[in-house]
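User: Structure please.
Assistant: Input sequence and predicted structure:
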Amino acid sequence: MNKTGNKRIELAASEWLARRESDDWSDNDRAGLDAWLAESTAHRVAFLRLESAWIESARLKALAAGRTGAGPPPRGPWVQPPHITAEAPVADEAAGASRVEALGALRFAARETVPPRRRALVGGLTAAAVALCGVLAYWGWRTHTAVDTASYASGVGTLRTVALTDGSHATLSSGSRIEVAMSRGERWVDLRSGEAFFEAAKDRARPFIVSADARRVVAVGTKFSVRRDGADLRVVVTEGLVRLESAHMPGQPPAPVTLLPAGSTALATRSGVLVRTGTVVDAERALEWRGGYLHFDDTPLAEAAIEFNRYGGPKLVMGDSDAAALRIGGNVRWSNVDGFVRLLEQGFGVRAEQRGGIIVLHSH
């Protein structure tokens, strides 16, 4: 039977059930219901199913669907079926017996079977989907799961060069720390503090990435340094090409990607990225700390003092604005703070005042 036929039978069954539960149910109505039930097994199945649902779940509105007129009566009088009430025990017993007989005559249609070929096709597709999910999961795990992790740090006033498992090397400046995670898809270094110079081994299948907060420097095989100064980041490239990226901040336009060839020095701040293009020799001078020196080129004394303070020893403090603005140049060992102070006194007329572990520099 099609859906339309089933719907029509269910609608008729609901109408019979609603009429039977109403106050004006008569013997003629009962005879009419019995006749309708006797017409078809489908009629009896539909009526018994709705009657059971009505008793157990009291779904009044559903049972009354499609009923014309004033609608179904209130639920209260319907709770107890009339064939089990004390007022009509004989009739109810007869109705119950009739219902049992009707159930005995029920014949259920055979369940639709799935053809073997279709069942085999469905099973094959399911197995293929499961296998594909497994392959994708393995690929994701193999590509992105870190297989080698390590942490390196250098103390204040010391340098440290470490060999990474991919053949790369990292030289940590004073008071620096990196976290390394190598996977089959990429090589990731998180610069937590300080500065580090990287000699990334060539591996086009696995980019070498140095991250610092919301920024990252991406290279395939090259030499460069990354330094953190609070929220600012400085990148110096001495070989190859690196890509400087900034994370997309909510509510702001995407930050452009900056390509840095060898000889470039980039300073990334909250205001943007400033790039100075020069020679590789210029870039190498900015990294002379690896050889124990600090290079200054028309540098304010206040900035030079900050560089010295990064490597420990007596702390240099500016005594006045004129001393801070004094410009100097040259190479000085970062471990020789006392020698640097003597040069300032002899060559620039700076007066140094010792205060415990602090040296205050005055212009006169």
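The chain has a mean pLDDT of 82.
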